[in-house]
C-alpha cells in the first residue's frame, strides 16, 4: 500500500530478490511480476498431513528461478514472504515443512514474516487544503487531471501501477525504481523547512508597521504624555504620593511601566520620561503585531493574509494616533492578543490555559473595555453554536441572554471604572477621525459576521463593542485600542476569502466557434496571480524602504528636555535657596529626572503651608496654549511650554509705579550717569525692579556709573516680570576693564550694602560688572517696608 514503510528483502541463497512497490524486479534476476496474484487472493496452501507445499496458482510457477513462497499482499502490495514452521525456522524451497508432532498435520505457514508484522504506519494524508503560503483554494483544475492534487508518496486508494501512483512516484525520489527505503522510520522522516519564502509577507508587513509607528512616535508631544511614566518613576523612587490604586488601570499600567523600565533601564537611557514611555508604546505595538500574526495563522489565515491583517493593524494609527497616547489600553492589547493566541488553537494545554486566563485578566484590569468585548463574543459564540455545540439551541440561547444584563451593567459603569479623556484632542485625534474609525470598525464587524462563519462571533463582538463604546461622543480611547487588533484579524480573513473567490476555478466553457475549452474569468485571474504577487511584493518592499528613509530623516524632538533643564537653571540662578518649585506628578517627575533637587522640587501637596521661602507653581502646556497671567517665566522646547507661576505675585500700586519713575528720572538726570538707549527705555517705562533702581541711584550719587544694559532674564520675556539685572561698564567715566582697582573698590562698596538693596549676584563679565537680584513676589512692598 502506498505510504507503508516496508523495506525490501534480499536474502542471498534463498532466491528472494528485492522488489519495489510496483512489483518490478530491481535486482535483475528475472523474477516475474506477481501481479497475477489478485489482491486479497489465496496464500500458500499446505497439502494434507504430509507437509508438502501447496500447489501454486497458474501463472505464479515453481522452479526455473521462480519463488514458490512469493505471494501478493492483501492490499495489493507485492512482496516476498518467508514460510515459518512451528519452531520459527526457515524451510528451503522444494522441501517439506518439518512438524515436531508427526501425528497431526503441520500448521499453515505464517501470513507474513516477523519483520513485516510490526504495525504499519498510517498512509500519507491527502492534501485537502492549500499550502499555507498560497491563497489558492484546493480546487480541481479544469482539465480534470487529478495528478496535480495527488499527495506526494501516494495515499489511500492509490494502487501500484495506476497513473496517480506513478505521478506521485515521479515527485518522490524514494519511489523511483531501484531506490531502497530506509529500514528505520526515524531515518525516513523529512523535516519541513523552518523558513519559507511566504514568511517574508508577514515579516515585511510587521517591519513596516514598526517603522511607521516609530516615525509617528517621534512626533510632537501630546497632553497625555507621561500619564504612566510619571507614577512609574515615583514608584521606583519609593514615593507613595501618586495616589493610584494598585488594581486600577492607571495603577497597573504604572506598575507595568516600572517593571519595563527596571528591566531595560529605559529611564536611565533616555533624557525624558516621555521618550521612555513612547519606547514602551512601540514595543507594545510590535508585540501585539507579532501575536496578531501568529493568532491569524492559528485560525487558518495564509501568510499573505496575515500581512494584510498587519497592514490594517498599522494603518489606523496613520489616520489617528491611537497608539501614541500613553494609556493603559495600549498596554492591554498585547495581553489580549496573547490570550487569543493561546486559545485560538483549540483546547489548550493546562499550562497554556492558565497563562491565557492570566493574560485575559490583566487585559481586563488594564482596559475594562476588554470585558465588553469578551461578553459580546461569548454571547455571540453561544448563539451561533461556536461553543458548546452539543447543547440544545434553547439552552445556549438562554445562556446568551443571561450575559445581556452583565454587558449592560459593564457599559454603564465603565466610565466610573476607567475614566477617559474628555476630548479626543488630548490624545491627538479629532472628532471627524473618531467617527470615521468607528464606522470602519462597525462595518468590518458586520462583514465578518456575515462572510466568516468561523469568525462570526468575533465580528458580532467587534460591531457591538464599537457601537456602544467608541461611537458615543467623545469615545473611549481604550475601547478603540482593543478593537483594532480584532478588526485587523477580520480584515485579513475577509481579504483571503475575497481572493479565493476571485481565483475559484470553474469548469471550462466550450467555445461555440472552435469547440475548445474557453477559459473563464477565474482562469485569467489565476494567470495574473504571479504578476499580482510580484507587484504586491515590490510595493511592500518599496514601502519598507521609504519608511526607513523617512525615519532616518525625521526631525528629532527632545519632548521638552531643554525646557526642563532651562527651568532648573532659572531656579538655581534667579530664586533664593529656600524657594521651591511645586508641580503635579508629571512635571515633578520630569524635573527630578532632569537633575532637579527633590528638596527644591516638590510634589503638590507635600509642601507645608507655613514653609519659608517662595512657592512657585510649575506646569506644562503643549501646542499654542496661551500664557498664564501670573507666569513669571516660560521656557519652550519642541512644542512644550514650561510655565513658572507665582500665585502670590503682587500687583504694584499706582504709588509704587510713581516711585519707580521718580527714581529712574533721578538716575537719568544725574550728570555722572551714562547709559545706552535700551537702558533709558526700560527706566522710563518703570519696568525695573525698585531694589535695583535704589541701588543704582545710590551708586551714581557716590561714584557716578555708566549703564551698559539692563538685560532681561532668559525666559522672562513678555511675562511682565521686572528687570532685576544691570551691567555697569564705567565708573567716574573710566571703563572698568581698564582699571581693575576701580572694580575692586566698587565690589567692596556693594558688599557692605544691606538687604533688600544688597545684590544677590555680583560678578565680572566681558562687558563690565554684572549686578542681579533674586526674584521676589512683591519687590515694591519689600522696598517700602525697608524704607519706612
Automatic annotation (TrEMBL):
Name this protein carries in UniProt: Uncharacterized protein
Comp. bias intervals (Basic and acidic residues): 1-11, 18-27
Keyword Ribosomal protein: no
Extent of Low complexity compositional bias: 142-151
Keywords carried by this UniProt record: Membrane, Transmembrane, Transmembrane helix
Source species, domain of life: Bacteria
Region annotated Disordered, chain positions: 1-161
Transmembrane segments: 195-217, 273-293, 305-333, 353-385, 397-414, 434-452, 528-551
